[in-house]
Design goal:
alpha/beta, seven-stranded mixed beta sheet, 6 helices, 9 strands, 244 residues
Length: 244
């Protein structure tokens, strides 16, 4: 067993299981998916730490607990089609791919989408479709979905997303409450929506449009720095949540 596999097992045991996450399928997926490959090479040694890490273009990969919690809240059994809005590094999509039948994931920062598409394909995850697009309106051409997970914060739940859920399906969405962000789980039940509050969190805002040409400073590591990373400002240890 290599060092990264050992680190993943420790991550799952100490950060997920010890915190009460008990979905065995989720724990197994996070023990198997090579998290270090979703962060820049210079940060491989920090990939399994209990913190968010920069992935470039002003974005971050969420800390392991956040990914594990959101995966558990979807209550996936294996037959589902899932929509993810905010691909980021592609790590959450890789975990979801191990838990469901099909994943459609949308990233508005085109270079990130391209990077994630190449990485996921290289891992042999042929049940993931990566789109470089505006995800704020979901993917109506592929709806309905059994579950939708949004890894960006919105001021309120977009009705377009709820309408793309199957009856009984879950939508996970961080909502801006002014002084804090709260992760909510919405379940569609006929014409009604049942709302459950989860945890306080910290995500980048859900923005419309597509960023086609995003350039980083010459010579800068692919991860960027805290200076150009809103999620890491005033948070040197990267303890806030970020993108997937």
């Amino acid at each position: 067993m290599n060092d990264y596999a050992v680190a993943r097992r420790r991550m799952v045991r100490e950060q997920l299981a010890a915190a009460g996450l008990d979905d065995r399928r989720v724990l197994h997926a996070m023990e198997v998916v090579p998290r270090h490959q979703f962060v820049p090479r210079l940060l491989h040694h920090r990939a399994h730490q209990d913190c968010a890490l920069p992935i470039g273009f002003g974005q971050t990969i969420s800390k392991p607990f956040t990914v594990g919690l959101m995966s558990c809240l979807l209550e996936l059994k294996g037959h589902e089609r899932v929509l993810e809005i905010g691909t980021g590094s592609g790590y959450q999509a890789a975990v979801l791919a191990a838990l469901c039948r099909e994943v459609v994931t949308i990233e508005r920062v085109a270079p990130l989408a391209g990077r994630a598409r190449q990485l996921l394909a290289g891992l042999g995850l042929d049940n993931v479709e990566v789109r470089a697009d505006d995800g704020s309106q979901g993917a109506p051409d592929r709806a309905p979905f059994d579950a939708i997970v949004v890894t960006a914060c919105a001021p309120h739940v977009p009705t377009a997303l709820v309408s793309q859920l199957v009856d009984g399906g879950f939508l996970l969405l961080p909502v801006d409450k002014g002084r804090e962000q709260i992760l909510y789980r919405y379940q569609r039940r006929g014409e009604e929506v049942v709302i459950e509050r989860s945890i306080s969190c910290r995500f980048v805002p859900l923005l419309p449009g597509i960023q086609e040409a995003v350039e980083e400073e010459p010579g800068q590591d692919a991860a960027g720095t805290a200076a150009d990373n809103p999620e890491l400002r005033d948070d040197p240890d990267g303890t806030r949540a970020g993108r997937a």
